[in-house]
Design a protein that fits this description.
Blueprint lengths: L3 E5 L3 E8 L13 E7 L1 H11 L3 E9 L2 H6 L1 H5 L3 E7 L5 E8 L4 E6 L16 E5 L4 H8 L5 E5 L8 H6 L2 E5 H6 L8 E5 L5 E5 L2 E6 L12 H14 L4 H16 L11 H9 L1
Parallel strand pairs: 1-4, 1-8, 2-6, 4-5, 8-9, 9-10, 10-11
Antiparallel strand pairs: 2-3, 6-7, 11-12, 12-13
Length: 278
């Protein structure tokens, strides 16, 4: 049977503008292209885990608006079981994203209905996956319902309670996110992502694996971290050793960075296998 993952997190509609280069403070740039793309770190990771072969349940909150339908499109197509709340007051979350031709981006998230996520059930998964685009209260409510393996992707960067850090079995963060945590998280299994340099996996502060991503032409790094996180969790649940799991996670992140958009960029397990064989 495939591993089961419950993802409790954000769901957004991404408003993406492709620019020749990112604007400097006070500068206006004209976009080369514009798209509306399903996104949100929680929804991205749910889609990624499903495409990698997991049985996925997604818990999130949307507004009663037109954005809600489009924001759930790829979740439905990926076969994710949806447990969605509908907010009558707050709109569906959005992310304003500028991407340049080298794949660098600026992202501003307007949380909307994501702020009010509460009163949900996570079921009985093999793993629980949360991120920081929802409240600490929602994360604690999710983690308190299950003894399953709990992965916290500490993104976007902000301080969180020690109670969450101590509950996490795996924390995934980049260097900016690590600095923002406000507490040492290294008692847990910790994956430090290093962008184009790959990632390091630490157990109680000791390095246990290191991996580098395959070479790709970067197009849009928006969901690369989400692909990495989902692939690391699914690979560990599948019983792969830590080195192989980290290598697969780096490959998934690289594939996502080589494609435009958030959820449209997320790879399947077959695509991860193929790039690692190349």
């Amino acid at each position: 049977m495939p591993p089961s993952v419950s993802v409790v997190g954000s769901i957004n509609l991404d408003l993406v503008a492709l620019c020749e280069y990112l604007p400097r403070p006070g500068e206006t740039r004209t976009a080369l292209e514009f798209e509306r793309v399903p996104g949100g770190k929680g929804a991205n990771q749910a889609v990624a885990a499903a495409r990698l072969g997991a049985d996925v349940r997604f818990v999130g909150r949307v507004g009663r608006d037109d954005h809600a339908d489009l924001s759930t499109r790829d979740l439905r197509e990926a076969g994710v079981e949806l447990s969605l709340q509908v907010d009558d007051e707050e709109p569906t979350g959005i992310a304003l994203i500028a991407v340049d031709l080298s794949g660098e981006n600026h992202i501003i998230v307007v949380s909307g209905a994501n702020r009010s996520l509460k009163g949900f059930e996570v079921g009985e998964p093999d793993a629980l996956l949360c991120q920081l685009e929802i409240s600490d209260e929602a994360i604690l409510a999710a983690a308190g319902q299950t003894d399953a393996f709990f992965c916290l992707n500490a993104a976007p960067a902000r301080e969180i309670s020690d109670e969450i850090l101590q509950r996490a079995d795996l924390i995934v963060a980049n260097s900016f996110e690590l600095d923002a945590l406000g507490s040492s998280p290294l008692g847990a299994l910790f994956a430090l992502t290093l962008g184009a340099e790959g990632a390091v996996l630490l157990d109680d502060g000791d390095e246990v694996a290191r991996a580098h991503p395959p070479k790709v032409d970067a197009v849009d790094g928006t969901a690369a971290g989400d692909a990495f996180t989902a692939c690391l969790v699914v690979s560990l649940l599948e019983g792969r050793d830590r080195q192989q799991a980290l290598e697969r996670a780096c490959a998934a992140g690289a594939i996502a960075a080589s494609r435009p958009g958030a959820q449209p960029s997320l790879p399947t397990a077959g695509e991860v296998d193929a790039i690692l064989r190349a």
